[in-house]
Design a protein that fits this description.
Layout lengths: L3 E10 L2 E11 L4 E5 L6 H9 L6 E6 L2 E5 L2 E2 L7 E4 L11 H11 L7 H14 L15 H13 L5 E5 L7 H18 L2 E6 L2 H7 L2 E6 L2 E6 L1 H6 L4 H6 L4 E11 L2 E6 L2 E7 L8 E7 L5 E2 L8 E13 L3 E7 L4 E7 L9 E7 L4 E2 L5
Parallel strand pairs: 3-9, 3-10, 7-8, 8-9, 14-21
Antiparallel strand pairs: 1-2, 1-4, 4-5, 5-6, 10-11, 12-13, 12-15, 13-14, 15-21, 16-20, 17-18, 17-20, 18-19
Helix pairs in contact: 2-3, 2-4, 3-4
This protein binds adenosine-5'-diphosphate (ADP) and magnesium ion.
The site of adenosine-5'-diphosphate has 11 residues, from strand 2 and helix 1.
C-alpha cells in the first residue's frame, strides 16, 4: 500500500463538480505536483488532503489510516501535514523567530520546552537559509525571504507531508527559479513527501518526480515529467505541457501502432498513442516545434522527410522560430539561433516518426 492513497474522491460545490473520481497513490518521499489551468480543482484537491474540505465520495488514507471519507475527516491540525500558500500570510507584527515558533504553538505539540523551541526554530531557519535574520520583522524582508519564513513555519512541526499551493507565484521570475532549486534540495534533504500545486508547467517539470495533470476536475495523466511531455495522454496534456503543433490529417492506414496520415498532399508516419482509433478518418497529430529539424536528418531514427515553404522567422534569443507551410498545415519549427531562412524559401523538414503522435481528445 502506498503512503498516501486517494480513492474515488469526489467534491461538489452545490451542483458543480469540482473533483470527479480522483484516484492516486503517492509514495513516501515523493515530490508530486498537481498541474493544471486555473479552476481545474488543484486547490480543492489539496484542501481535501489537508482536511479543510470533506469529500462527497471516496477516501483518503495516509499510512493506512483513513483521514478523509464521506463520514468525516480528521481535522487539519491532527494530520501532521504542513501547508504553504501563495500569499504567505506571515504575521507582520512578529519577528522571523516568533513567526516560525508560532508554527509550533498552533500545532499544539505537548510540552515543547523553550530550549527545544529555540533549537528547532534555529535549525529550520538554517535549512531555509534565513539564519541571522531571526530578529527581523517581515516588513524588513524581501518577498523571497518572507516566503521562506512561511516555509520554515510549516517545516518546524516536522511534518511528514508538506502541501504547497502555488508558493512561488508571487515572486519574480529569477527568484522563482532559484527557489525552485532550493525547494527541491530541501525536499531531498528532509525526505518529506511534497505535494505541490502549480499552473506553471515548467515549474512542475523542474521540481517533480511525478506530475498529475488536472483538467475540469479530472486527472488527465499521471507520469514523470518526461513521459507527460513526450507521451501526453491526450491533446489537452500535449497542449498544456508546452508548445505543440496540432496538425489535422486523414488516416490512410495502419500497421500496428504506426499510422500513415495524409496532410495535404504529403504523407507522414505517426505513432498511435492513447485510446485505440479507427483505421480511417480524421486524426490530429501532435508535434513539438523543437522535434522538427530543418534539412534532411542523416541519423538512424526513422524520419518523415517532407517539404514546405517558409512563411516567416522570428528571432527569440536562444532560438529562432520558423513558420512553415507544408500544404494543408502550418508548422512552427524551433531551430538554433544561427539558422536563417528567407520568407518563401523552400525547405526540407525531418520529423522523427516517434515525435509525430496521433493523440485523442479535444483539439
Ligand atoms: N468554496 C467554493 N464554493 C464554490 N465553488 C468553489 C469553491 N471552491 C472552489 N470552487 C470552484 O471549484 C473549481 C475549482 O477550484 P480550485 O480548486 O480553486 O481550482 P484551482 O486551484 O485549480 O485554480 C472552480 O471552478 C472554483 O470556482
Ligand atoms: Mg488554486
Amino acid at each position: 500500500m502506498a503512503f498516501i492513497e486517494i480513492e474515488g474522491i469526489e467534491k461538489r460545490f452545490g451542483s458543480y463538480v469540482a473533483l470527479a473520481d480522483i484516484n492516486l497513490a503517492i509514495e513516501a518521499r515523493e515530490f508530486v505536483t498537481f498541474l493544471g489551468p486555473s479552476g481545474c480543482g488543484k486547490t480543492t484537491m489539496l484542501r481535501t488532503l489537508a482536511g479543510f474540505l470533506t469529500p462527497d465520495a471516496g477516501k483518503i488514507r495516509v499510512d493506512g489510516a483513513v483521514l478523509s471519507s464521506v463520514s468525516g475527516s480528521v481535522p487539519p491540525e491532527a494530520r501532521r501535514m504542513g501547508m504553504v500558500f501563495q500569499n504567505y500570510a506571515v504575521w507582520p507584527h512578529m519577528s522571523v523567530f516568533e513567526n516560525v515558533a508560532f508554527g509550533l504553538l498552533v500545532a499544539r505539540e505537548p510540552r515543547v520546552s523553550a530550549g527545544e523551541i529555540d533549537a528547532r526554530v534555529r535549525r529550520v531557519l538554517a535549512a531555509v537559509g534565513l539564519d541571522g535574520l531571526e530578529g527581523r520583522h517581515p516588513g524588513q524582508l524581501s518577498g523571497g525571504q518572507q516566503q521562506r519564513v512561511a516555509l520554515a513555519r510549516s517545516l518546524v512541526v516536522e511534518p511528514s507531508i508538506l502541501l504547497l499551493d502555488e508558493p512561488l507565484s508571487n515572486l519574480d521570475a529569477k527568484l522563482r527559479e532559484r527557489m525552485r532549486t532550493e525547494l527541491k534540495d530541501l525536499q531531498r534533504r528532509t525526505g518529506i513527501t511534497f505535494i505541490y500545486v502549480t499552473h506553471d508547467q515548467a515549474e512542475a517539470m523542474a521540481l517533480s518526480d511525478r506530475i498529475v495533470v488536472f483538467n475540469k476536475g479530472r486527472v488527465q495523466q499521471v507520469g514523470n515529467p518526461r513521459t507527460v511531455y513526450e507521451r501526453p495522454a491526450n491533446l489537452f496534456v500535449a497542449d498544456f505541457m508546452g508548445l505543440v503543433n496540432k496538425v489535422e490529417g486523414q488516416l490512410e492506414g495502419r500497421d500496428g501502432d504506426t499510422l500513415c496520415v495524409r496532410v495535404g498532399v504529403q504523407s507522414l508516419l505517426a505513432q498511435a498513442h492513447g485510446p485505440a482509433m479507427a483505421t480511417t478518418g480524421p486524426v490530429i497529430l501532435a508535434i513539438r516545434p523543437e522535434a522538427i529539424r530543418l534539412g534532411a536528418e542523416p541519423g538512424a531514427v526513422a524520419c518523415n522527410v517532407i517539404t514546405g515553404n517558409v512563411i516567416d522567422s522570428t528571432f527569440l534569443g536562444n532560438i529562432v522560430e520558423h513558420r512553415i507551410d507544408i500544404g494543408g498545415a502550418v508548422l512552427r519549427v524551433q531551430a538554433g539561433r544561427w539558422v536563417f531562412h528567407a520568407p518563401g524559401e523552400r525547405v526540407v523538414l525531418s520529423i522523427p516518426v516517434e515525435e509525430c503522435l496521433a493523440v485523442g481528445g479535444e483539439a
